[in-house]
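Hi support team,

I'm opening this ticket because the web form for multi-chain structure prediction keeps timing out on my end. I have pasted the exact lines I submitted so you can reproduce it. The total is 230 residues across two entries, so I didn't expect it to be a heavy job. Is there a limit I'm missing, or should I split the entries? Thanks in advance, R.K.
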Amino acid sequence: EAGVVQSPRYKIIEKKQPVAFWCNPISGHNTLYWYRQNLGQGPELLIRYENEEAVDDSQLPKDRFSAERLKGVDSTLKIQPAELGDSAVYLCASSLDSGNWKTQYFGPGTRLLVL
Amino acid sequence: AQTVTQSQPEMSVQEAETVTLSCTYDTSESNYYLFWYKQPPSRQMILVIRQEAYKQQNATENRFSVNFQKAAKSFSLKISDSQLGDTAMYFCAFVSGGGADGLTFGKGTHLIIQP
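Hello R.K., no limit was hit. The queue was backed up. Here is the completed structure from your submission:
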């Protein structure tokens, strides 16, 4: 079974430029998460989707960040315009809605460097 | 809000030794789940072990086991017969209720296994 796929793996951009990250979750997983991991820190949740609905986006900086999950499968996270402080690893995770709890499976992440 | 604290930024042990990583958490909820994730230098976050709060029995997965002390809000990870491939960042994580929410992570412990 294929794991969570993310692209690109690395991205270097200049500040004020737009950038987008793509995530393909594990087949059949209805819940999708985007996390941001700053250097030396644990990941922090940005947004959670249940199917195509964003059910928790309270930590998403909505002035510059946006996300979508078309047809409840793939998801895209966008930053426009990027700032120096956005340099981080962006992780996507997915989980299956079954049983009493859900284990989140992570993708390899996209490492963003804003110059 | 829940918090997760990992008080050991870095640990180093010799191959084949046993090592214990500490984790404490703070929550007012009675139903929750705890996880240990491993993040090697490649950045892929991998689930090591998980524990349901309502289960008194400590979880074990081969060389990995936990010491879950609910009253003390402590959740330590023990790695027996450590191997070079165990070198990685280890993150303790918490999720409340049904497990669908985003994970709350600690800052991580960098574990180095010396040959």
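A quick check on our side: Chain B has no helices and twelve strands. Let us know if the file doesn't open in your viewer.
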